[in-house]
Design brief:
Layout lengths: L3 H27 L9 E8 L10 E4 L2 E11 L6 E8 L10 E6 L6 E6 L12 E2 L1 E3 L4 H12 L13 H7 L1
Parallel strand pairs: 1-7, 2-6, 5-8
Antiparallel strand pairs: 1-4, 2-3, 3-4, 5-6
Length: 171
């Protein structure tokens, strides 16, 4: 029979291996590590407004994750946000005339980039740029535009008591 000391050592080693496995799993799921970096290629896309898009955001085609956002910077000449996308090496046939849009997962979810493939016969490769882009829809801007378009009760354009044409017709 094994001595008590050997059993305790084996249990300790087993617990240490289990903790290390759980840590590796947590890092893999969270995306906070580069231990498991996938091969791929980088493409860029310039947007007028990226909303709340963040580094490590998803890049999807038809709802399937095919990469991630690896960098965001501002172009000093055009003042557009230039986003660097890392596309997995398993996805090689993205036509170079494809478009990229920034969408929101759900009503208030995270932003991600959706690539819509087109019909070109030349495919994107490392260092290429996606020319056709569609910026994020910012909910606050849409609400502001809606409120501005309907005006407010004190506005002369919407207040019937200030309409001079109606006053002349009533006399």
């Amino acid at each position: 029979m094994l001595s008590q000391r050997v059993i305790e050592t084996l249990v300790g080693l087993f617990l240490l291996a289990a903790i290390l496995a759980l840590m590796a799993l947590a890092f893999k799921v969270s995306g906070l590590t580069t231990f498991f970096k996938q091969d791929g290629y980088n493409v860029t896309a310039a947007f007028e407004d990226i909303g709340q898009l963040k580094v490590r955001g998803s890049v999807k085609i038809a709802g399937v994750t095919v990469g991630e956002v690896t960098g965001i910077m501002i172009d000093p000449a055009s003042y557009k946000a230039v986003v660097t996308l890392r596309i997995n090496s398993t996805v090689k046939d993205i036509p170079n005339d494809s478009s990229a849009s920034i969408l929101t997962a759900g009503l208030l979810g995270d932003n991600y980039i959706a690539i819509t493939p087109m019909y070109g016969t030349v495919f994107l490769k490392n260092g290429d740029a996606i020319e056709e882009t569609h910026s994020a829809m910012i909910l606050e801007k849409l609400i502001g535009q809606f409120l501005f378009s309907i005006g407010h009760p004190g506005d002369k354009a919407t207040d019937p008591s200030t309409d001079t044409a109606d006053k002349g017709a009533k006399k």
